[in-house]
Amino acid sequence: MNYDIDEVIEEIDFPWLIFKLSNNMYTVNSKMITSIVIKPEEVTLVPNVKDYIDGLIHLRGNVVPLIDLKRLFNVETEVISATKENKMVVVLEKDNSYAGLIVDEVLSVESITAFEETEEIKKMCREGFVKGVAKGNKSEDVLLIIDEEKILNMA
Predict the structure, then answer these.
(1) Taking 60 as the threshold, does the pLDDT of residue 92 lie above it?
(2) With 0-12 CB in 10 A as exposed, 13-18 as middle and 19+ as buried, what is 122?
(3) What pLDDT, on a 0 to 100 scale, did the predictor assign at position 57?
(4) Are strands 105-110 and 88-94 parallel, antiparallel or unpaired?
(5) How far is CA 149 from the centre of its chain?
(6) pLDDT the model gives residue 123
(7) Strands 53-59 and 62-68
(8) Which of 53, 75, 78, 49 is nearest to 66 (CA)?
């Protein structure tokens, strides 16, 4: 069987969404992202759920649980000025299961130049939500790679 190398690379090389939580930069593979929206003001609160679940929203006929990544990752919340209160929701979907990740700011979509997934990183991040580190094409910032499947399974 003959493969065109360009086709194989295109299948493997997905773009990555880069976003910010507090002062850290994170990235998630875009293959499960269905949309990115401004967090709605009206969120349906659900009693007796984990503290990282912010509530539910309806988006294009689907019920989407919102996961506050700062609470999930136990990231310090900085005091935000009134101009920066518009958080974004990155909506993931797999097998008709949805989750909306609440992030501070969506920065870009780009290819990753270096990717490292190590046991040391997994040990440091005991819950396993961060599975590696990477560098993007547009900056020298270290990006923490999110395990989107693990987070989607928690919603």
Answers:
(1) yes
(2) middle
(3) 96
(4) unpaired
(5) 10
(6) 65
(7) antiparallel
(8) 53
In single-letter form, the type of residue at position 47 comes to P
Q: How far is CA 131 from the centre of its chain?
A: 12
Q: What is the identity of the amino acid at 69?
A: L
Higher pLDDT, 131 or 25: 25
Tokens 């969120």, residue located: 43
Task: Report how far residue 111's alpha carbon sits from residue 15's, in angstroms, rounded to the nearest whole number.
Answer: 5
Task: Please provide the average confidence, as pLDDT, over all residues in the chain.
Answer: 81
8 A C-beta contact, residue 69 and residue 51: no
User: CA 92, CA 29: separation in Å to the nearest integer?
Assistant: 10
More confident of the two residues 126 and 93: 93
**Nearest one of 128, 108, 132, 135 to 30, comparing CA atoms:** 108
Confidence of residue 43 (pLDDT cuts 50, 70, 90): very high
Compute φ and ψ for 121, nearest 5 degrees.
-65, -40
Q: Provide the greatest CA pair distance for the chain.
A: 59
Only one residue has tokens 């993007």, namely 136
